[in-house]
Amino acid sequence: MRKYLYSISTQEKSLVLADQGVFSGCGFIITLLLVRLLSPVEFGVYASLLLFIYFMVSISSAVVIQPFQVTLSKIDNDIEYISFAFCLQLVLILILSIFTFLLLNIGIEILYDLQQSSAIIILYGSCFLLHDFFRKLFLARNVIWKALLIDTISGFIQLGFLSYFLLYSKLALSEVIFILGLSYLPGLFIAIFLSKMVLTIRRNWKTYFLIHVVHGKWLLMTALLQWWANNLFVIASGVLLGATAIGAFRLVQSVFGVLNLLLQTFENYALPLASRLFQSSKESSKEYLRSMSFKGAILVGSLLFVIFLFSEFFIILVAGESYLEYAFLVEGMSLLYFVIFAGYPTRIAIRMMELNHLFFLGYVLSFTFSLMSFQFLLKEWHLWGAIIGLITNQIILFSFWQYALYKNQFVLWR
After folding, report:
1. Which of 63, 189, 244, 336 is the most exposed place for a label (fewest CB within 10 A)?
2. What is the pTM of this model?
3. How far apart are CA 336 and CA 391, in angstroms?
4. Are the C-beta atoms of 135 and 64 separated by less than 8 Å?
């Protein structure tokens, strides 16, 4: 029996890794294909659109997904609750679609070129949000193969279409967005079928709604603040420096996003072990976090140092010679990710000690700095100013969390 349970556990871990690999890998390759398929200006517009969709995803996650993930295990009738969550997601998508349409048609000059593509953009955003909902629904219910299935279908359809058009035809940005939106539909039909929903309003829906209001209002405030703290410099660089600048910035961010998998793996592995050690001995957990940080710094630092040294080769390999002038962004992002990794033990310690409210307070401080400094930094140093701002944000976050750990008598570094 023990071997049987272990094999199931191992299989689930493998499926989780496979799904994350398909999801992240397809997203990475799609980005590289789009860089080659679109002009730098068009890719910049696409990057801006994707940034806006991630903004909507953060709202959806706070209002629907995160409360759902926490509450699902406490609900007896999970099919009824899933149906409620799906309908709430549809209502939220309708509200966000109306907001998107109004935003694109109120006469903002920078959005003028997108007005003719309002319907296509809303289609893409809606399908993106629905796919994200079903993916996280299946992960929350621990039916990982279903998440892997819809991720594989959608990802491979997108890769197939974009690869074909890159080789044999030239597409306008609106056509690319339309194809990306349609590519989600087969996976969504399968997801609806697999989820076995019963879409009839039940008396418990009012209770479910109140649960989401109670949990979601705090999560929404935190998610919006975190999104703005992380993206204000990126958005401002697009507004002040043009679409090409934000496209280059988002391209390099996407490429370095592969390292987020390493960071997430580090956190998923280190946090449970550090928490167990913390229960028996503070000093043991400190020693473990220091040791993991030192070993990780050698590995990640070496990789980032190589990327920093060969930044021009790296940017040409990824995006072509048209982006060569933005090789300095690779250097800046290498520095940023080293700072992020250096502060990760502090982040893990905050989670280990269940001081989660400090995440919100930390993002308040970093967002305040961003708001006060972005115009000066971008005016004086352009995209280097954005890099400086993002690095400073991380230093503010980790300094504040380190001070909080000190006040809680948990000093990692002396």
Report:
1. 189
2. 0.83
3. 5
4. no
